[in-house]
Amino acid sequence: MQMRKKWSSSLASLVLAVIGIGSAEAELAGQEFSAEMVQRGPEGQMSSGKMYVGDGRMRSEMVHQGQQVVRITDETRGVEWVLFPEQKKYMERQLAGSGGPQPGMMQSASEDPCAGAPGLTCRKLGEETVSGRTAVKWEIVAAHQGQTVKTTQWIDKERGVPLRQELPNNQTTELKLVGEETLNGRPVEKWEMVATMANQQPTRTFQWFDPELKLAVRQEFPGGFVSELNELSVGKQPDHLFTIPAGYERIAAPQGMPGAPKGGGMPGAK
User: Fold this and answer.
1) Which residues contact 168 (CB under 8 A, 6 or more apart)?
2) DSSP state of 13
């Protein structure tokens, strides 16, 4: 029983961490492909895994805290599974709305950023020029528990990325095209994102966008952290990668896991 409680407790923290890892990649790309995911820290620490992107589906494989974890996202069904191959167990959660354009992904500037996102209302304000590029200006209002928060986004008309965002408390982010480069033999666009907050120094993040895949294949974060996709191979991915293998047992999701049913908890955690 103690071993079960210990595993349940560690599994709860593991799942919450895995949900956070690669959340940007949960938005699916414009082409089917496979790639190696690599993350490097400022002191040389490195972690890696595999990513497979299919038609409206994505699979990522990684090792976190010594535990092999597989994450499968199916946008068509609106569901995500977290698999633990060593225990032959899995968890399930419902996918929420994306809540608007995400830096790192390309989409249509004319699409309503609030579509499919409960509690969000968007209003198109027209077109303006930002950093020399034509952008569609959107006002986004989020309502939650009787309170509302208003933000403004300027979405690049050609690439669909947010060129500028104005957030509450004088927070802003700006995205600027730096130039074109070749990365791992593929043509990419290098963008710089600057985030500013009151009474703080601006922070800069660099992103390399692959126009064919419609996502960032490399990102450099403040502090020396790097995330990138290597060994890219474009092509149709097998269906079995995006299904739960036979013989797996479904277990309850930990409390606090986004999309988990209310009252969910880890088995044996009494």
Assistant:
1) 149, 150, 151
2) H
